[in-house]
């Protein structure tokens, strides 16, 4: 009997956090008799080797050198025994019903196969207070994920919750190991072209807001990977000018917040060149939101 689902936890030098992530993965309520699920921890050559409790459904592998998040995720996929795989960041946690809900949806989905599942995310602080929630979209095979237009109540920032057939992920080459940031954004532009994405209206993933290091928050890596992502998928971006402009506009906003003013101005100018009307609309909405916020404070 093949293992049904492998939960892959790539980790580097976060021994306390990864223990909580492992506990949440092992707490899944899906039937675990036989070979139901396994939890696979991929240690990306941390300075001190991990010491995890023994458990029949827990495995750990240690990479011979530090290779980065994309390579660790790919190594986990290659080593996984499950028909399906999902990933859990070492500083986040799963809610108990994730595996059960995802497997049920994969079996019952009306979308064109192959099908992968996305679920909702709640962002919580260190006190456990929910700061925000994110709900995933539904996109059939042949779509281009973040370049598609979705309803305002849905979010592309649910990529961490992916549950997908192992062979489908490996079939598209897995994560691009030349990327240090935006690895999920790049993957999904390829994945959604060959795989339907079923967004479920349930929360299964808890993203922990903390002051520790996250690759996605590194401003220099974000700039490098921003240019790399557009260069690799330039034709896709140009085929979706409104969403391309939005992508550039959001990058400009984040660059400005991180103090990279010159990069922000360049991205904003590029957005206007790609789609002047949509860029003006986005700025107008931002001004309106800021004015509304100021009036509320008054």
What's the topology here?
Blueprint: E1 3-11, H1 15-26, E2 37-43, E3 58-62, H2 69-79, E4 82-87, E5 93-94, H3 98-108, E6 115-124, E7 130-134, E8 163-165, H4 166-171, H5 183-194, E9 196-208, H6 219-232, H7 234-238, H8 241-257, H9 261-274, H10 276-297
Parallel strand pairs: 1-2, 1-4, 2-3, 6-9
Antiparallel strand pairs: 4-8, 5-9, 6-7
Structure description:
The chain is α/β, with parallel strands linked by helices. The chain has 2 domains: 3-208, Alpha-Beta Complex (Spore Coat Polysaccharide Biosynthesis Protein SpsA, Chain A), CATH 3.90.550.10; 240-297. It has 10 helices and 9 strands. The chain has helices at 15-26, 69-79, 98-108, 166-171, 183-194, 219-232, 234-238, 241-257, 261-274, 276-297; strands spanning 3-11, 37-43, 58-62, 82-87, 93-94, 115-124, 130-134, 163-165, 196-208. The strands form 2 sheets. Strands 3-2-1-4-8 form a 5-stranded mixed β-sheet.
